[in-house]
Every structure is written in C-alpha cells, then in structure tokens.
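Usage example:
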Amino acid sequence: MIVVMKPGASKECIQHVIDLVHDYGLKDHPIYGTDQTVIACIGDKRAVDKGAIENAPMVEKVMPILAPYKMASLEVKKEISQICIGPNQTPIGGTKIGIIAGPCSVESREQILTTANAIKDAGCIGLRGGAYKPRTSPYSFQGLGLEGLKILAEARQQTELAIITEVIGLEQVESVAEYSDVLQIGARNMQHYPLLEAVGKTNKPVLLKRGMSATLDEFLLAAEYIINAGNPNVILCERGIRTYEGYVRNTLALAAIPALRERTHLPIVIDPSHGTGHAYMVPSMCLAAVAAGADGLIIECHPDPEHAASDGAQSITPKIMAELMVKLRRVAEAVDREL
Amino acid sequence: MIVVMKPGASKECIQHVIDLVHDYGLKDHPIYGTDQTVIACIGDKRAVDKGAIENAPMVEKVMPILAPYKMASLEVKKEISQICIGPNQTPIGGTKIGIIAGPCSVESREQILTTANAIKDAGCIGLRGGAYKPRTSPYSFQGLGLEGLKILAEARQQTELAIITEVIGLEQVESVAEYSDVLQIGARNMQHYPLLEAVGKTNKPVLLKRGMSATLDEFLLAAEYIINAGNPNVILCERGIRTYEGYVRNTLALAAIPALRERTHLPIVIDPSHGTGHAYMVPSMCLAAVAAGADGLIIECHPDPEHAASDGAQSITPKIMAELMVKLRRVAEAVDREL
Amino acid sequence: MIVVMKPGASKECIQHVIDLVHDYGLKDHPIYGTDQTVIACIGDKRAVDKGAIENAPMVEKVMPILAPYKMASLEVKKEISQICIGPNQTPIGGTKIGIIAGPCSVESREQILTTANAIKDAGCIGLRGGAYKPRTSPYSFQGLGLEGLKILAEARQQTELAIITEVIGLEQVESVAEYSDVLQIGARNMQHYPLLEAVGKTNKPVLLKRGMSATLDEFLLAAEYIINAGNPNVILCERGIRTYEGYVRNTLALAAIPALRERTHLPIVIDPSHGTGHAYMVPSMCLAAVAAGADGLIIECHPDPEHAASDGAQSITPKIMAELMVKLRRVAEAVDREL
Amino acid sequence: MIVVMKPGASKECIQHVIDLVHDYGLKDHPIYGTDQTVIACIGDKRAVDKGAIENAPMVEKVMPILAPYKMASLEVKKEISQICIGPNQTPIGGTKIGIIAGPCSVESREQILTTANAIKDAGCIGLRGGAYKPRTSPYSFQGLGLEGLKILAEARQQTELAIITEVIGLEQVESVAEYSDVLQIGARNMQHYPLLEAVGKTNKPVLLKRGMSATLDEFLLAAEYIINAGNPNVILCERGIRTYEGYVRNTLALAAIPALRERTHLPIVIDPSHGTGHAYMVPSMCLAAVAAGADGLIIECHPDPEHAASDGAQSITPKIMAELMVKLRRVAEAVDREL
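Running the assembly step on the lines above writes:
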C-alpha cells in the first residue's frame, strides 16, 4: 500500500499518517520526492481498509499494491486447474475445450431431450438450462423449479452430458446440488456472499459468472469466497459487461481471457450468448473466444427460438450449433487445442 | 411493442412475424413505410419475451413501448407515496426531507451511541449502520451480526431515531425486521429476487438501493418485486453508478431524481457517500440532491473515520454533519421544502 | 512514479528496471516488501512514457503520482480564477454565478433577438448559439455560418449580453474570435489539439467542454494545452458523460464540481441541457449544480423547441427560463452566492 | 420514426403531435393501443430532429426506425468493399486479411527501417507510424512531423509496404496525402467533421478509427461524412471503447465485427494494441479478431518497447510479431481466409 500525500503536506500531516500506519500494524517507509511525499507501507494489508487512511488530512490517495485475492491467484498455484464435470468427469481447463449448450430455461421434457441429443451429437460435453430463473420482471416466466431439475437429470441419463444449472437462492442449493453436476452462480448473484459460501460448502463444481459490471478483482474475490468456504472447483465465466453500447445486450470483454490467465489458475469459460444478446453474433464470438484461449464455451441453444420462454433473441438452433462445432474444431486445432 | 423489419423484407417474412404475433395473443397492425415495414403489436405485452420475435428472419429489432412495471408506476398511483418510518413514524416522501446518517458498519456500542446522539442533535431522523456487511473480500470485516442489531436497537431507545440496516440474506430477514425500522437492500442484492420477495412479505418499509449498473427499468422492477409480494412501502435509493470515471467510487446520477419522479410515486433518497466515495465531495452532493428534489439523504458519518472498519474514505464526522445540516436547511427552504 | 514488480521478480529483473529508471533520468528508490518489490522513481516524470517501463519483464504496473497538468493546477495558483466576459466584462468564477442561455443553433435573426431579449430580462449574462454546428450526421442542419455570427453580434449590441459560440475548425478561429466574446470548444473537439493551440493564441476567453468520456486528467490537460499556448482564460464546462444509462442523453456528473475544485483554479460551468438531453430535467439539474458550487450554467433555451433545428428535446422555453431564474436566485443565496 | 404518447394523452395532445408531424413533411399513422397511442411517421426522416417532437406535451419518446447513414450501409451496396492500398495495391476487404504493424511514433530513421524490414519479412502488408502525434499532454513527445513522413516514405521505397499515418489537422492533409498511402483519422478526431470532409476530398484511402465512446451509428456517420465528401475508400477500425474496466486501456469490442458486417460494406480492421493497452494481451486478441472475421489488423510493434517514446506498454517486438504471424496464418486458414 502506498499513501500519496498532497503537495505541500506539512511534517505534522506526514507524521500523523505514519502514526496511523503504525496503528494498522504496518511498517512505514516514507519517500520524500521533488513534489510530493509518498509513504510505502509494508506488512499484510489485505485486512486494512485503505479508505480510513485516505480520510487523514493532506492525503491525496492510497494505492493498493497487493492483489486482494490469494487462493484464486497464480502465486498460490502455478498450473491451470483442471475441473472435472459430469458423469464422465470431463475436464475443463486442459488442452481440450469443453463446449456446453442448451436453452435459457427448461420449458418442457421434449424441448430438453431434443436439445440434449442434438448437442451431444454435435460434440458438446455439457447441457445448460435454467430450472430456477432470476428474471428482471416479476411478470416474466420464472422457471419450472424442481420439475425442471428432474427433466435435466433425465437428459443426463440419456446422454451422459454434464448438467449445469443455476442456483438463485440458499434454499435451493441442496436440491440443485442433488440433480446437477455444476452449480451456476448467475451474474446478478456474483456478490451474493451467503450464496457463494453455501455453494462453497458443497462438493460440486461451481460455474461463477462475472457480474454485469464487476471488475476482475471483484470477480476473483467472489471466487475466493467459494474457495475459502472449502470448494476449490470454481470455473470462471465471462459473459459480457454493461457499457454504453446499444447494439449488444452486453459488451463481451474477450481480453478478460489473457488478463485472467495472467492472474489466476482457474479455468475460463466464455458465454457469447449473454455476451452479445443476438444469435447472429454468437458464432463469430465463439470462434474468437476459442482463438483467444478460452477453456470452454457456454452457448444458448433452443430448438425453436422464436417461441422460447426467455432469451430467444440470443439462442441459436441445434442446426447452427452443429455447423458451428465444425468450425470451432478447426480453430481449436489452429491454436493447438481440441474440442 | 413495435417490430421493425429490415429493409427488403419479403411478404413471407412479414407474414411469418404476423403469425408469430398472433401466437403470442397480440393483434398486429402493420405499417408499410417508404423504406421499411414496422408491425405494431396491440395487447398486453408484459409477459412476451421480445427476444423471441427478434430471432425471426428479417426482423431488425423489437422495441417495447410499455413500461415493464405497473405498481411502482405513476399510472397506478398519481400522488407521491409517504412512507412513515421509526418510532415517531416520520414520513419520507412529503414536504419534509428526511436525513439519515450513521457509520458504514456497527463497530461498537460506544461508536453507535456517540454517533446516534450527535446526528439526533443535528436534526437527523434515522440512524444507519450495518450489522451484516456484504464485503467484496472474504478477508474484510464482516460485521457484528446480531450483537450489532442489539446495539442499534439500544440507540433507537435512547434517541427515537429510526434504524435502517441492511439484510444480506434470507436467513436474517426475520431478525433484522425485529430489531430495525427499515430493511435496507444493498446495491449488490438489488436483483436477488428471493430476498426481494422475502422483504416483500414483512411489514417493514424497505430502502432499496439501485444496483451498481442497473437501469431505471431494472430498478423499478426490483421495487415491483417487493410491492408485488405485498409490501408497498419501498423507498428508492440512488447511490451512484459504475462508469469509467476514476476520481469517484461511483458516479452519482442526480438526474435520476427528475427521471424517477416522472415514472414512479415512490420516494427517492440519495446516498452521496457511496455515490462519490470521498468525504470531501459529500457536502456539495448533499446540497445538490436536496436542490434537485430528493425526498431524503442517507449519509455515512463516523466519529473517527481514520479508524473506521469500512468506508472510512467516504465518512464525514459528526462535526461536519452538524455544519452540513445548517446548509441543507437553507437549501431545502430555497426549494420550498424543509428538513 | 511507482514501479510495482510482480511477486517473485528476480534481482536481475529488478536491476533491469532500476537501469531503465536511470535511462529516463530519474533516481530510483526500491522498497522490498513482504510480497512484492516496488521502485519509487524520483525526478520530473511528466515527460516519461510510463508504458515503456511497464513493458520490462516482471513489471506488474507503473503508477503515476504526479498530476500531469501544471498550469491548470491549484499548486500553481491557489485562488479561483475570475474570467471576465462580454461587453460588461462580467466575471465568471467569483461570488456571482453567471447564467448563459440560448438556442443550440442560430436559426434566424428573429429567433435570436427574441431569445436574447427574453434571457436578458430574466437576468442572464450571456447568450449561446451555434453558427457552425458539428453534427453527427452530414444530413443534419449544419448552421448558418458567418451569417449566424453576425446575428449574434447584433444581439450583443441590443442586449450587452456576452456572446458564446462554438468554433469547430481552425479556419474559423479568426472570424469567431472577431464576432464573439467567448470561444466554445465542443465536447467532440476537446482533444483536437491543433484547435486547442489555435484558440490558445487568441485573446478571447475559451469555454472548454469536457469530452463525452474524458477523464478529469484529460480534461485538465486539454485546458493545459490552451494555457500553454498563451491563453490563461479557460472556463471548464461539465456537460455529462457517456454511460450505459438510456433515460438520459448523457449522465451529468455533478461530483465533477467538488473534484475539479480540489484540483484546479479554473472556473466551472455546468451544461444541464446536454448533460441530460431532456427539457423536463433541466430545471432540477440547474438548481443542483448551483447548490453544488458551480460558477455558472449554460442552458439551451429556444422560443419554439418543437420546431428547433437541433436539440429541441433538451431546450426550455424563455418562460420556463424566467421561472427557473427566480428559483436559482434563492438557491444561490442559500449557498452564499448570487446570480 | 415512431412517436410514443404517454398513457392518458388527450385527443388535443395527439392532434398537436400529428400537426407537428405534418409540419415536418411526414405522413402520420396513429395506432391506438390498449394503454398508449403511438404515431408512426412515414416519409424521409433523416433530416428531422426527433428531439423537437419529443418536446411536445405528453410525448413519452420518439424512436427512430431508419439507420441514419446511407452510403455506408448495406442497402446501398451489398458486397463488401475491397480497398486497395500501397505500392502493390494490396486489397483490404476480401479473402486475404491484411496485417499492418509498426511503432506508435516515428522516432528515428533506424527505428523505422528496422521495424519495416522485420514486419515485411514476417508477412505484413503495411507499416504504421505517427509523424504527427495527438498527445493527451502538451508535455509529451509530439512527433517528428514532416521529417517523420519522409522516413516513412523511405521505408516504403525499401519494402513496398503501404504507409499508414495519422493526420491530426487540416493543415497537414496535403503533406500526409503526399507521403503516405492511407490517411489515418484517430479516435479523438472521429467527429472532427472539417477533417473528415478534408480527407474525403483526397484520393487516398482513409483508415477511420472509432471514437473512444462512439456508438456504431456515430462511427458509420463519420464514415458517411468522408464518403459524402467524395471518397468511398473508408476502412473502419475498431480500437476499443472506454468502459469502467481498469485492467485494460480500452475494452476491445470484438462483437463490433459481426455487428458492423450486418450494417455496412466497408472493410473492418482491428487495433488490438490500443484495444487492450498491454503487449501481453495483443497476440490473443489478434487471433480472436481474425477468427471473428476481421479484414485486417493494425498492431503496434517497436524494436525496443522499453525505450519507446509513446505506447511502449502495448507494443510488441518484431520477434513476437513474427511468431504471431505464424499463428495468425493458421487461424486464418481455419476460418477459410488467408494472410
């Protein structure tokens, strides 16, 4: 942590900050520059609220140095984590790129089985589908609940696909963990800490979506909550961020792939569906994500998007999905990976 | 809802969309323009997922017309709601502007009682303070929990201030509702729907903070969840949005005041502390908020910000608070209101 | 400038950076922390490209300390600058708050004279109006050019209002400087450096609008270009920033007022018209800006907004303007200022 | 254009808007819905300021239908434009992907010739380098000017690479057009309309960078200015947008590739250097851009980034560039294109 004093800070102000630094159990190391004095603070600063020092007189700013997360960081674990999911324990995070697909919502047994079989044939390893839906409006379709979970479990039995489904509240953690293979934490819940701790106490892998306007630090700290609670199997999912851009639902920030790879050992999956909001953009963003180094993709796929209960605009059909898989395979090979 | 067809859409494509509109139980009303055809859809469209239609061939975009919320809207209730809080049932939402202050976290009995007495003397009507803290890092101070609630209740007994405190998980709704007067839903939980429904089933007013990058529609739909669950006493709180600006923690969007006033009857409170992140900016933003028509303010105030467990940088002292109240009174009078 | 090394950086890497720091004529001051080494660099760093050092092996980041502007800063000049404008040399930047109003575009002699007389009566000190219009579309109205300038000059003669008008290209600097009292640099041109240098060589005050997504550092550096070219009379104008918010044209960042006041001696004017995009929001944002400490306002006002050639949605009528002035006077007095 | 009336709008208000629509030379087509009335307007609306109608009483909003650009649109020209650049008239916009590289600034003859030869050997088709630099600070290196242009021309003679260099002001258009093959309009100047018109009057292709926070409509309208002035040879360049993200200089919006392809026939080039700000992210973003369908890349490459006069942090070395080209070739082939 570096405390930057304003130009012209008096000796008394500087001494006051040094005393404050000591109050926090840190060692001070002042540097008297030509225009300004800065005080480097040495010691473990993760628990210190930097804001407190910022409020001292003549402090211009306090700049943290240390990454605020530990267990999610590359310092603690240098090799990329492989997280195995589903009945076949397919690894996410190695040479193979795992493709997950499926509808936004579980709407019916037929819809799910049709989709599951089609994506299985195309080479996907996982089936996504929401049984509990966090919907912006209380008047929108809210999901089939437990019935939806059972339909997903049936699809797994038929196809051996791993099941990924969202858990939106504490009271569902147990049942979702019973029926599914991967617990999804949605973007809206990325900072719902009681839920992070609850999934951290299960033994199921967690797919953690980045919050709509989360920083990478906040994202990795959310992962840290889960790991800290006992569950190291966290898959990070970039799904686009909210920006001023109106031609997309979200701006897909693919540079998060190299940026996260520089910071964390956790596998990185891209969601090009929420990341764009438009079906016609999904194939090119899938290809881009694989070329950029993603460890997996999670794609919305629906047999009849025009009648989908949710996210119809961004869902591709199983036919488009199958064609896309062929192209993905070629791009994966071009970057020395495989599907 | 207006469906805009791409230029050059064939008759078949247009008919296909018209059929789809009928599938959704809406009446169609096509308009053939010089360049493009648009199809106006008449009927109740709140439950239709516009995305589904967007996926039909040659559809350029689907534009909703109707506001997606009902009970929060001015159409349902024309006069501004007055919501009475605390032991004295002080109204928020009338001529009087309610000022709430207090520390980010409840840290100790002494800290709270000192603050409570000071802000009471200055003319505040409510005391804020977190007993359960949603912290970005698992290594930060997480709050005193139940003990914190009891300290707040003691402060109420001494001062008759209304107590506002955050509820971060379902399991605390009952105890927070028991000890406090207003249940706060934090920005991170604005779209945690199970929690919105749970506080919607209590009989305590709710202070709902706008999510860090929520639109006004999303904000009002979150309020709608609470009202829809049975609790009409929702106070909206603008607390800044996340933007590219680095000199503030958040960008305080004061234009939300006239914009919300145009859309909803719910009272509007401004949080200039989270809305800026810096104590030195708080007074001018408080004055601005009152001038702009806010129904209340919620301000972080700490007797010793340099040693605060959280949010020290944005907390003002009771002394600054008292000076600010004098100025706020003058500005309130200038816009025909009072504290 | 502080260079932060990655955890585990070798002695060689650290020495390499120290050598690089010397190459740039700076003194090094390494601090060996528990997890990471940082190297404080002492000397004049304004001319060093921090990016160059960031590219050295094992450098995590380079953090600048010094504000990059000088002449615009409070370090160079502690008291707020008063800049006098127009035939009566009305000061902007003192106790008095200067209100400027007028249409987006000069459309006709009658429109301008009507507006000028009305706003003069209401107590405004300046008339704005564009003769040269930077329009997003080549098919939009582009302004009356020289004829517009002459109409503005006639309005000045009739009313003694100061004339503020935009200069959008180098070739107009001379003629705009001849006919108007204040040269406006629009948001789109905030970083058009040849134009900044050109207005910096005139003897007319400059109203510099903040770019649509400029940081405060970029904004003050743009002012620095003008001052550096010889013209110290720069008035800063916050006019809203681009964010994800859809209910406004721009998000008016009023916290820029205290933030700029902390950094610069230049006067600060607020544009609530571009800052919101909607006439109904303009009055409350004007009141808020004055309460927050603005030194002036620049407001779009048109006698017939429904037929305005540009910016009709955000223009208020002279009647609303007159009513607003009464309220502004009261709020100004409440914060110990006057119109 | 669709005018949406507020719920409860009276007949008089509706008639007033219809009259206004007629004033603008449009035909009205009102639709009376269950909650609200909307008025579709038929005719050429590109020249109508929608804001004017928004100001009429009881109008909720005015929604444009028509894309505001014409000549840049796919409606006017269905096949992708091929734009040939440099001594060998290498096409940008066909099966072949054109890779352009070079330093941010021209610093010396040796630096440019070294870089030019290296990137030529690696398979690049163009050399970028700034002779005139738009720098955020007046104290930063401002470029070598005419001398820089001459060095670039010498590099062309040696290598037959196409020269791309920025023109920042009207007074340089002529000399830059004389020495270079492609005129670059930088992000800061995307809406400097006099400059757009000036380059529109030359016969040199223009590489137009998207403004830092420009929408796609604004971007294509800037292209429209150039085409409208007589120069159809516009290459669009996405270079990242400003968002809240702090780990990048800009957020590279690769979904702009499919989005622009849906709207315009102009070729699309990606700048991953400004688009991320960090050299270590550049290779993966280059691969992603090619996989996503980019027609070209423009990459900052410097023989000694640690001593670069500008943009050192985001410059890759010729060695990294050569390795990257091998990978790019493989990904290009995987999507049926070639370098």
